[in-house]
Structures are given as structure tokens and as C-alpha cells.
Write a structure and sequence with these properties.
Number of domains: 1
GO molecular function: DNA-binding transcription factor activity
Shape: globular
Order of helices and strands: HHEHHEEHH
CATH class: Mainly Alpha
Helix content: 55-70%
CATH architecture: Orthogonal Bundle
CATH superfamily: Winged helix-like DNA-binding domain superfamily/Winged helix DNA-binding domain
Strand content: 5-15%
Protein name: MarR family transcriptional regulator
InterPro entries: HTH_MarR-typ, MarR/SlyA-like, WH-like_DNA-bd_sf, WH_DNA-bd_sf
Organism: Sphaerisporangium album
Pfam family, one: MarR_2
């Protein structure tokens, strides 16, 4: 908790300067890395720590700022997609250099390449157990959890 809290306090100023909250940034980055810069609303909720109503509120707010738009699913009337707009991508690209600098300064730059690789592999294993839907709807390779002896 101390590491999470400390890193959050170091990362939040860059988001605030760009007019984004931490959850706004997470939503935009998840959409940016998804195929066609979009995710089903249910997949976006599954990838974040938000409930379905919580992700709806975030998307509503981002839609008012023209950073995201909602698109109806052609094959399922009940579903809709959150799609990153060009303005949303531009806002994300504006904050990313500072965010990456913060990550290097306060996280990855503190570790040797071997330590970082081990940490990231370990975090993926834990993520896949505690948040199995963290990559729902994303086009990413499935992580294989090693067998326990």
C-alpha cells in the first residue's frame, strides 16, 4: 500500500496538469492500446476497478469533453463501445511524455533490467489471479501461470 500510495502521489500531478484524473488516464490509455481504439463498455469496466455504472459515469464525463465517444454495437443492440476520439488521443499523447518520465524516475529507473523483468513477470502472475478480466477485450497474448510444485 505504501508503494502504491507513493507512486500515485508522484504520478497524479502530471494527470492533473492535463485536466485528467487517474481514472480518466487509465480509461484513455486502455482505449488507446485496444484494437480500433475501442472497447465494449463491459470490457472497459472489467479492465478497470470500476463497476459498470462507474465506467458509464467516467465515459459520460469524457464524452462531454470530446475525449471519448460511445458507439452502438452493430451486432448486439444491448452493447456499446467506448471509442477514443482524436482529441482524446491528443490529450493522452500530451501527458504521456511526463508520465513516462515519472515512471522512469520513480519506478523502472530504480531497478536493474533483471530486477525489472522479474518484478513485471511476478506482477503479471498476481494480476492474472486477482484481476482475471484485466485484459478483457484487449488484443494481448494470454499469460500462462506457471505450475506450482
Amino acid at each position: 500500500m505504501e508503494v502504491h500510495s507513493g507512486l500515485t502521489s508522484k504520478m497524479t500531478p502530471a494527470f492533473a496538469e492535463s485536466g485528467l484524473s487517474e481514472v480518466d488516464f487509465e480509461t484513455l490509455i486502455r482505449l488507446a492500446r485496444s484494437p480500433e481504439r475501442q472497447l465494449r463498455m463491459s470490457d472497459l469496466a472489467a479492465q478497470t476497478s470500476l463497476s459498470t455504472s462507474g465506467v458509464t459515469r467516467v465515459v459520460d464525463r469524457l464524452e462531454r469533453e470530446d475525449l471519448v465517444r460511445r458507439v452502438a454495437c452493430a451486432s448486439d443492440r444491448r452493447a456499446s463501445y467506448a471509442t477514443l476520439t482524436d482529441a482524446g488521443l491528443a490529450r493522452l499523447q500530451a501527458v504521456l511524455p511526463r508520465h513516462l518520465e515519472d515512471i522512469e524516475t520513480w519506478f523502472t529507473g530504480l531497478l536493474t533490467p533483471t530486477q525489472l523483468e522479474t518484478l513485471l513477470d511476478t506482477l503479471r502472475i498476481i494480476r492474472d489471479v486477482v484481476r482475471p478480466c484485466a485484459t478483457a477485450g484487449a488484443d494481448v497474448p494470454t499469460q500462462v501461470t506457471p505450475a506450482r510444485s
